[in-house]
UniProtKB/TrEMBL annotation:
<keyword id="KW-0067">ATP-binding</keyword>
<feature type="domain" description="Helicase ATP-binding">
    <location>
        <begin position="200"/>
        <end position="366"/>
    </location>
</feature>
<dbReference type="Pfam" id="PF18319">
    <property type="entry name" value="Zn_ribbon_PriA"/>
</dbReference>
<dbReference type="InterPro" id="IPR005259">
    <property type="entry name" value="PriA"/>
</dbReference>
<feature type="binding site">
    <location>
        <position position="428"/>
    </location>
    <ligand>
        <name>Zn(2+) 1</name>
    </ligand>
</feature>
<keyword id="KW-0639">Primosome</keyword>
<dbReference type="GO" id="GO:0008270">
    <property type="term" value="F:zinc ion binding"/>
</dbReference>
<dbReference type="GO" id="GO:0006302">
    <property type="term" value="P:double-strand break repair"/>
</dbReference>
<dbReference type="InterPro" id="IPR014001">
    <property type="entry name" value="Helicase_ATP-bd"/>
</dbReference>
<dbReference type="GO" id="GO:0043138">
    <property type="term" value="F:3'-5' DNA helicase activity"/>
</dbReference>
<dbReference type="GO" id="GO:0005524">
    <property type="term" value="F:ATP binding"/>
</dbReference>
<feature type="binding site">
    <location>
        <position position="458"/>
    </location>
    <ligand>
        <name>Zn(2+) 2</name>
    </ligand>
</feature>
<comment type="function">
    <text>Initiates the restart of stalled replication forks, which reloads the replicative helicase on sites other than the origin of replication. Recognizes and binds to abandoned replication forks and remodels them to uncover a helicase loading site. Promotes assembly of the primosome at these replication forks.</text>
</comment>
<feature type="binding site">
    <location>
        <position position="468"/>
    </location>
    <ligand>
        <name>Zn(2+) 1</name>
    </ligand>
</feature>
<dbReference type="GO" id="GO:0003677">
    <property type="term" value="F:DNA binding"/>
</dbReference>
<dbReference type="InterPro" id="IPR011545">
    <property type="entry name" value="DEAD/DEAH_box_helicase_dom"/>
</dbReference>
<keyword id="KW-0235">DNA replication</keyword>
């Protein structure tokens, strides 16, 4: 049998199947092969009777980690996103299966050998006291793990009894269960009539459902009830959440409800944990995959429902290789499986809501909170007026008073600022010098806790400045504040206040994200200060006040989504207040109080905001009425980047002449002109839907033909950031 094998090497030169000889095996099988003088693994994607080559190397069967359904999805993704075979296959297979060795974790278990007389053995060990202790210890039980014996009696003593043949050994598989601490008691929940109607409609149907529910309306209970019905029908389920919303609460809820049927997929897991969770799903022991976008590739069979919570979140789009949109992949997989796809959000993506209004999706609405109190009242504070009154603090008088009152009542507070660090830039007031990264065209952020300047693009650190390196002046100004500065000023204003900070700087260690949230939920802090990490998925019953600082910070970015994202963010953050039996309050600070985002946001009027925003998009011809396509060229040699960009631009002008006029096309430097030592240029287009499919193959071809020798070139569809 001739096997067509994709080898586990990600280069354009080998992005095709290679012929190997081997036994007949299922498509999707993993095989061990020799390729170009090296041992590696590969995946069988085709079979045939004959090869064009007279002599073939042999492929050795290992296992079958990829199903036929997943191979079909792989091919659909390759065609849609112009991806390499192996880059897509790796999405379905844990890293442990890219090695030939046994991926399972096994511990050595020792027991006394059969037929031994304990007293005779101990007499023979008269001069080896520790070895005697091991023998007597094992005689009182069935056996023990080698690691436990070594810790109790010493590795040398254990080696002694092994060498003398007094013990037998066996390898015991031990599952690596991630985040074991994330469990909670199950509470009986009675669904509201609206929730029950949503469950009934989703469970009985197929296609795409948009579940539009205000924050606190009980969407998670709807998800779990739908999944429960799917399990009862012998089906499986995938539950996707944004990585930053994968909280202890949601994991605890799912484990309390479904026990060991839940498998976790998360970037914070080590390779062994990821493999063991994957294996539980592959073997059918786990029926529910919970995780961020990678969970859409879970090895589940007979899928009944795929749920995407916070479906508007930008993290569902992969912006590094392989690039794909999780929602589109989920649509493909759900359609192939005949499963329902549920998109849930309090602030749906503009296109999703448009599809619902046009009947392409089935719209289900949850308009009321399930708690005793409805959505918290949102108060808008004009920071221009605060400045005029002489208030130079980060906190308006209104917010400071509210924090003090909440602390006095022993209630908790969340303060949101979507900027980490202490100061977002450092500038010399004498000459105007701004400290920038040597590898990236971005200003450095000051981190006071480490006393360093840090690049938030590449992570490089620099010594903090006491004098200007340009003019030698000592008048150094710190720019816009970050979460670190908020904590410092809060502690100065309220001495003794217990604070926790959650941002990318405080969550670098494994499980730190979960531990911070657990501590706050347990009352271990009075105030939680954080970036967008704190905006989603959290349910803290004792939080009655949310303060939103610099709510307009992202409002004027040169991005057509800036208003939408600001509305989504303030709505999500505001929803953290008043989620139990205590009334919530939200204080939003802005320098643009009359902007329509805040006018609609104040009353949580998503429909009003959507109508205003969708009309603007239609008039200006931005998505969802067009597709934005960017080709980004990056090179260590700037002239090479310029030449490649020019070639792509000219090629696309020729395409425009053949297929019809683009809404827009232009070539220029990228807004961040240099990143990680590479010069960056881009071609930006807006395409009408009717010509999109004809243009994209040409875009991909031109990008591949004009990749710089020392750099990269790739195309993005509706990129989440144009920076």
């Amino acid at each position: 049998m001739v096997l067509e094998v994709i080898v586990d090497i990600s280069t354009a030169e080998v992005d095709r199947p290679f012929d190997y000889e081997g036994e007949d095996m299922p498509l999707g099988s993993r095989v061990a092969v020799d390729f170009a003088g090296r041992h590696t693994v590969g995946f069988v994607i085709g079979k045939k009777e004959k090869s064009d080559f007279a002599s073939l190397k042999t492929a050795r069967f290992l296992d079958t980690p990829v199903s036929a359904e997943q191979l079909l999805l792989m091919n659909a993704m390759r065609e849609k996103y112009n991806l390499r075979h192996i880059d897509v296959l790796r999405l379905f297979v844990p890293a442990k299966l890219r090695e030939e060795r046994d991926p399972e974790y096994k511990r050595i278990y020792l027991a006394l050998a059969d037929g031994l007389d304990v007293e005779d053995v101990c007499a023979a060990l008269a001069r080896a006291a520790k070895q005697r202790e091991i023998v007597r210890y094992l005689s009182e039980r069935d056996g023990e793990f080698l690691s436990v014996l070594a810790e109790k009696f010493g590795a040398g003593a254990v080696k002694g009894v092994r060498d003398k043949g007094f013990v037998t050994e066996s390898a015991v598989h031990e599952a690596r269960t991630p985040l074991k601490m994330l469990t909670r008691e199950r509470k009986a929940v009675t669904l509201t009539s609206d929730q029950q109607s949503a469950v009934d409609e989703i469970s009985a149907g197929k296609g795409v459902f948009l579940l539009h529910g205000v924050t606190g309306s009980g969407k998670t209970e709807v998800y779990m009830a739908v999944i429960e019905r799917m399990l009862a029908a012998g089906k499986t389920a995938i539950m996707l959440v944004p990585e930053i919303a994968l909280t202890p609460q949601i994991l605890g809820l799912f484990r309390a409800r479904f026990g060991d049927s839940v498998a976790l997929m998360h970037s914070g897991l080590n390779a062994g944990e990821r493999y063991d969770e994957w294996k539980r799903m592959k073997d059918g022991r786990a029926k529910i995959a919970v995780g961020p976008r990678s969970a859409v590739f879970a090895p589940l069979e007979n899928i009944g429902v795929i749920i995407i919570d916070e479906e508007h979140d930008s993290s569902y789009v992969s912006e590094s290789n392989p690039r794909y949109d999780t929602k589109e992949v989920a649509k493909m997989r759900a359609a192939a499986a005949g499963a329902a796809l549920v998109l849930g959000s309090a602030t749906p993506d503009m296109e999703s809501y448009l599809n619902a209004t046009e009947g392409k999706y089935k719209l289900i609405t949850l308009k009321k909170r399930i708690s005793a109190y409805q959505l918290p009242e949102m108060e808008i504070v004009d920071m221009v007026q605060e400045f005029r009154y002489g208030n130079r603090s980060l906190f308006s008088a209104q917010l400071a008073d509210a924090i003090g009152a909440a602390l006095a009542r022993k209630e908790q507070v969340i303060l949101f600022l979507n900027r980490r660090g202490f100061a977002s830039f450092i500038m010399c007031k004498e000459c105007g010098y701004v400290a920038k990264c040597e590898d990236c065209d971005v200003s450095l952020t000051y981190h006071k806790s480490e006393n360093v300047l840090k690049c938030h693009c590449c992570g490089r650190k620099y010594h903090a400045l006491s004098r200007c390196p340009s003019c030698g002046g000592a008048n150094i100004k710190q720019g816009k504040v970050g979460t670190e500065k908020v904590v410092e000023e809060l502690q100065a204003l309220f001495p003794g206040v217990r604070t926790l900070r959650m941002d990318n700087d405080t969550t670098t260690r494994k499980d730190s994200y979960f531990r911070i949230l657990d501590k706050f939920a347990a009352g271990g802090a009075d105030v939680l200060v954080g970036t967008q990490m704190i905006a989603k998925g959290h349910d803290f019953p004792n939080v009655t006040l949310v303060g939103i600082l610099e709510a307009d910070a992202a409002l004027y970015f040169s991005d057509y989504r800036s208003s939408e994202r600001t509305f989504q963010l303030i709505t999500q953050v505001a929803g953290r207040a008043g989620r139990a039996d205590k009334k919530g309050r939200v204080i939003l600070q802005t320098y643009a109080p009359r902007h329509y985002v805040f006018r609609f946001g104040r009353t949580y009027d998503y429909e009003g905001f959507w109508r205003k925003e969708i009309n603007t998009r239609m008039v200006t011809k931005f998505p969802p009425f067009t597709k934005v396509v960017r080709v980004l060229v990056a090179s260590a040699d700037e002239q090479s980047a310029v030449d490649c960009t020019r070639n792509i631009y000219r090629g696309l002008l020729a395409v425009e002449g053949r297929v019809g006029k683009f809404v827009y096309i232009g070539a220029a430097k990228s807004p961040v002109t240099r990143m990680q030592g590479l010069s960056r240029y881009q071609v930006l287009m807006r395409l009408q839907p009717e010509i999109f499919d004809a243009v994209m193959p040409e875009v991909y071809r031109l990008a591949a033909e004009n990749k710089p020798a020392k750099g990269s070139c790739f195309a993005e569809i509706n990129p989440q950031s144009l920076i």
